[in-house]
Known about the structure:
Blueprint lengths: L9 E7 L6 H8 L7 E3 H11 L2 H12 L5 H12 L8 E4 L5 H14 L1 E9 L2 H9 L1 E3 L6 E3 L26 H15 L2 H7 L4 E5 L5 H14 L7 H7 L4
Parallel strand pairs: 1-3, 1-4, 2-3, 4-7
Antiparallel strand pairs: 5-6
Helix pairs in contact: 1-9, 2-3, 4-5, 6-7, 9-10
Amino acid sequence: MSNPSGAPPVPAIILFGSPGSGKGTQAKLLGRCVNGPHVSTGDMLRSHIETGDNIGRESQGLLKAGKLVPDELVNGLVEQRLSDPDSRAGVILDGYPRTLNQARVLMGLLAARGFRPAVVYLVVDYEKIVRRLSGRRQCPVCGTLYSLKTNPPKVPGICDLDGATLITREDDRESVIRQRLSEYESLTRPLLDYFRQTGVPVFETSGAGATPEQISARICGDLKSSGVIAGNAEVEAQASVTP
Ligand code: AMP
């Protein structure tokens, strides 16, 4: 497959997994081996909510309740984002697609632009997720995520990178987390069958007993050895120390 300009296909890495499976963290780390922006529909929606525009007003209540926003809305955001110049060499999708309709739309968008999709499926135990999400804090300025248990900020409550006061996302409260997991189970997890049936490669990885860096190195190694992305020396060095 080649894109409309005749160049080789570019990778579209779809980070897949339940809320709290580490997609955001992995998306940031994968930036070391995948050439392309981290596209998070959750972050895009939160930034519209902050701006207070129409999209923000339409999504705010749904995010608070842990419910999905309408497909057309996120499909439009992603379509626009894929057309940005920085997406030309590749893209890392986080939190999209989440429904069958979104997956179908995305496959059409990627095919038309010469992207080659690959899914990275992060498998994590649900009870661990509830514990992890309720202990999660985020910097409202740069988006960096912290975990009170496994990755706390150096100064409690303060972002290491820019000194902003960390916040707990409203949708990281336990009742909302359970609602988000239930949405994932009924609407999103079935997409794995769709990907497999349509021939999209799925790289499954379990986070048990490994650091985020080790998981990332393992994923990079898999993507590289299967030819989804080009190799690079830094990734090879990291992958060789993965247990
Ligand atoms: P996230 O940060 O990916 O966990 O997303 C936070 C919230 O944003 C979700 O619980 C949904 O309310 C909304 N959201 C993000 N991505 C999507 C999507 N692809 N489809 C529908 N709703 C989404």
